[in-house]
Design brief:
AA-Vitamin_Transporters; transmembrane; 330 residues; single chain; mainly alpha
Length: 330
């Protein structure tokens, strides 16, 4: 995504030591960057029975929502009472949590985690397009500058390089993995649409902090996921046997830390350092994702992946020049 809440953070939060804010920033980069690794581990392997695609997606949302509820209770933060706000948070929960998490979990069966991490970095590009489209014709409509248009075009080139589209001609294995790569891009498109929805219908229209908005959107996604679980999770695990310890721990970390507490850490960075600093996590997550995949899973990278990733990062820099900065959540 992922994805920081676009609401304005509350300013009554006490100033924290710089080391604590830096630790929160690095924790976000580590957790969101390694989310793709955790997805693959949670799905299981030949040596460890794992969770199904639906089990991973809904499991991480429910665990993340539980973690955020605990934080809300401990911090005595009030929940929204506005029905209109809950309606919009439900839409955002679908776009920023349920749908992209399902797509990433499905893609994780077929793609290296590093590839998913790199494609996730295109979120700001989709956000630029979605914000421009959704605000067109309104009083606060946004138009892409020439530099941003160039950034979008460069991003398309970068994605093509990362994917290695030229291999479609003579590489059957690449053609087989193409749907999974497109699923990752579909997930980032959902993130872009979710941020655009937040910007138009939620941001600046309520008096709640970003923690409340995060808990609301993840909580809404958890409720919908549980309601749809008989359809989305006909089998919680793969192979009928109980998941191994390693996949279980991976899912817990993915949910509690990556989907839950990371929002809290991101809120700390937003309050203390501002949205520009928080958005720079976008550039660290693909690096963390690729390195984690290589070191932990022994994944191999080809020349086009780092080259394409660099092109994508440059394109994101161009696109983010004027649009509201939002870090991308996996």
């Amino acid at each position: 995504m992922s994805a920081a809440s676009p609401s304005t953070p509350r300013t009554d939060t006490p100033i924290r030591p710089r080391a604590a804010v830096l630790a929160a920033y690095l924790a976000i980069a580590l957790m969101w960057g390694s989310s793709f690794l955790l997805i693959k581990v949670a799905l299981g392997s030949a040596s460890h029975s794992g969770f199904s695609v639906g089990g991973v997606a809904i499991g991480r949302i429910v665990l993340g929502a539980a973690a955020l509820v605990v934080v809300m209770v401990l911090s005595r933060t009030r929940w929204p009472r506005e029905l209109w706000l809950w309606g919009h948070l439900t839409v955002v929960g679908l776009l920023l949590c349920l749908v992209p998490f399902l797509l990433y979990a499905w893609a994780g069966q077929y793609l290296p985690s590093g590839m998913s991490a790199i494609l996730n970095a295109t979120t700001p590009i989709w956000t630029a397009l979605a914000v421009t489209a959704s605000t067109r014709g309104t009083a606060h409509g946004e138009r892409l500058t020439r530099g941003q248009v160039a950034g979008v075009a460069l991003g398309v080139v970068g994605v093509a390089v990362v994917m290695g589209l030229w291999r479609l001609v003579d590489d059957a294995s690449f053609a087989a993995s193409l749907p999974a790569q497109l699923a990752c891009l579909g997930a980032t498109a959902c993130y872009g649409a979710g941020f655009a929805w937040m910007r138009r219908f939620v941001s600046g229209r309520h008096g709640h902090g970003s923690l409340t908005v995060a808990a609301g959107q993840v909580g809404s996604a958890a409720v919908i996921g549980l309601v749809l679980s008989p359809l989305l999770v006909p089998h919680l695990v793969v192979g009928g046997s109980a998941p191994g310890l390693t996949p279980t721990l991976a899912l817990v970390a993915l949910g509690v830390l990556g989907t839950g507490l990371a929002y809290v850490w991101n809120n700390v960075v937003l309050v203390e350092w501002g949205s520009l600093a928080a958005s720079s996590v976008t550039y660290l997550t693909p690096l963390v994702g690729v390195v984690a995949g290589v070191l932990v899973l022994g994944e191999r990278i080809t020349w086009n992946e780092p080259v394409g990733a660099l092109v994508v990062v440059v394109s994101v820099l161009l696109v983010q020049k004027r649009l509201p900065r939002r870090p991308s959540q996996p």
